[in-house]
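Data availability (excerpt). The following record was deposited with the supplementary files.
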Amino acid sequence: MSKNGNGGPCVQRTEEYSFDPVRSLNRMVSEPYYLFHLLVFFSYIPIRCSAFQIISPSRNSLLLKREIQVFVAYCVLAVVKIVRTESWESFIHDTLLFAKVFLTGIALVLDYHLALWYALAFLVIHIIAQQPPYEGLGSSNHLTPLQLEALLTEGNTSRFWLVEFRAFSTPACVCTSSFFPELSITYSNANLSFGTVDLGLFPNAAERFGIPLGSLNQLPVYILFENAIEVARFPKFDSEPYVFGPTITKKLLCERFELDKRLLDYVNGK
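Predicted structure:
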């Protein structure tokens, strides 16, 4: 942890985020969210072996066909997702969702009591555990609301501040948690700074920056400040909270805040 030129705490990262199999395996066995899912998924193996000796050969044949179909469908969806995804957090979230749906479905073929047990187990995991977000901050500053207000009002700070307001209790914030650090590494300089405010820790800051706390499903929200004045916001908050909001990507963030055109001209002094 260090301080940058703007006075805020910042975690520097010199490399692009990359997938480390050893580190990911370690997280799977140490994070409750991953560990509980693995235990539930692998519980199907002894259950299936026991069922093989009990149910009839015709039922076994039908179940085997359904298992093959489910496995192929899951692999296809996983390949499509890994090609289209922009973060490992989003890939893990979606593939786990596919696996839970398929496992519950195949359990329903075996016995509806087993399907109900799996549905209950996944519900309990959803309540007691949370998918861990991306851990790095890149070149951005992790700020409290008071620090953000102080930085915006001081005349010797960056001309532009792009601030992410997030709450890791929402899946969307977890799935996009690596976007902002990667953008900060690419675009951060003396005139453009990046900051994050966790509304899960500081819910009172939501009203100050015009973010309805009743619309947490619309987080994360990104606000661009120029000389302490808000000049852009994405996404726009609707009067009625939406269920399926816009899909946030790194490319979309660049386009909405013109990081590749007008804003870069400003920060480069043109």
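Summary of structural features: The CA atoms of residues 157 and 262 lie 20 Å apart.
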